[in-house]
Amino acid sequence: MTVFANDALKDEHALVTGATGGIGSATAKVLAETGAAVTLTGRREDKLEELAREIREANPSAHVYTHAADLVSEEERGQLVESAANACGPISLLVNNAGISGGGPVENLEREDIERVMDMNYTSTVLLTQIVYESMKKRQKGAIVNVTSLSGLRGTYGGTAYAGSKFAMTAFTHSFALEAIEHGVRVNAVSPGFVDTDMGRKSAQKKADRQGRSLDDVIKDSIPSGRMTTQLEVANTITFLLTDAAANIVGESVKISGGSVMR
Ligand SMILES: NC(=O)c1ccc[n+]([C@@H]2O[C@H](COP(=O)([O-])OP(=O)(O)OC[C@H]3O[C@@H](n4cnc5c(N)ncnc54)[C@H](OP(=O)(O)O)[C@@H]3O)[C@@H](O)[C@H]2O)c1
């Protein structure tokens, strides 16, 4: 279903991290359909090329650029932003979507589990944002969406590391939004519950295994709408937050959970 005009984001340049994954690839497609030039990044170059091909096949006039990078590397973050700006102009929209799951019950947590999850989901994301924000601030224009999680708003069993990193991103979103809006830059987050991606299915299955129940039962019981959120539903919400239709939405965490936030 198309909900946006094909020129809603024309003249914009969006950087989408985690574009090789479920939510990121869906978001990149919707942004391209909405007229934005799109830079796709992730570590897997073949996946980036495959997605770029798909976007160009659907829309031959789409402006798509790919740059593989490990966002945990300071050098690679810098190269990514520089090469994206050289290819498509200054980045005006940023989707901080790359993220990893990890950790487990607190008694089994190793220091490196905590550091690995915090480094990708929080520290590296903040540092990438800092570089992109510098040029948004100069131009007094931009919009940023952080993909946090329902686990960034409430406790999740076995989630002290992952949920910790997502709570940190929620706090970053709300605090940074206050600074950035003074410079014409809007910062928001989307906070999905279970999304139908590899990561979402694995984590729902983990919950089912722990409770000794079927995946279907767990989904029906924990999600009032009775199903996982689709990748496209998250992509559409991110895109909405990046358009001028959301011009006065600042510092929000938009929950997309089929109502499971209430259970
Ligand atoms: N699925 C869910 O149920 C759900 C729910 C709430 C929130 N979320 C959040 O939504 C985001 C996307 O999740 P998803 O389900 O689409 O997961 P996914 O399919 O596993 O995608 C994760 C993405 O992150 C990228 N990534 C991981 N480590 C990276 C690194 N060091 N450098 C650069 N890129 C890296 C991966 O790219 P490469 O492997 O190519 O590097 C991949 O594109 C994550 O932040 C996740 O926490 C997901």
Automatic annotation (TrEMBL):
<dbReference type="InterPro" id="IPR020904">
    <property type="entry name" value="Sc_DH/Rdtase_CS"/>
</dbReference>
<keyword id="KW-0560">Oxidoreductase</keyword>
<protein>
    <submittedName>
        <fullName>3-oxoacyl-[acyl-carrier protein] reductase</fullName>
    </submittedName>
</protein>
<dbReference type="GO" id="GO:0016491">
    <property type="term" value="F:oxidoreductase activity"/>
</dbReference>
<dbReference type="InterPro" id="IPR057326">
    <property type="entry name" value="KR_dom"/>
</dbReference>
<dbReference type="Pfam" id="PF00106">
    <property type="entry name" value="adh_short"/>
</dbReference>
<comment type="similarity">
    <text>Belongs to the short-chain dehydrogenases/reductases (SDR) family.</text>
</comment>
<dbReference type="InterPro" id="IPR050259">
    <property type="entry name" value="SDR"/>
</dbReference>
<dbReference type="InterPro" id="IPR036291">
    <property type="entry name" value="NAD(P)-bd_dom_sf"/>
</dbReference>
<feature type="domain" description="Ketoreductase">
    <location>
        <begin position="12"/>
        <end position="193"/>
    </location>
</feature>
<dbReference type="GO" id="GO:0008206">
    <property type="term" value="P:bile acid metabolic process"/>
</dbReference>
<dbReference type="InterPro" id="IPR002347">
    <property type="entry name" value="SDR_fam"/>
</dbReference>
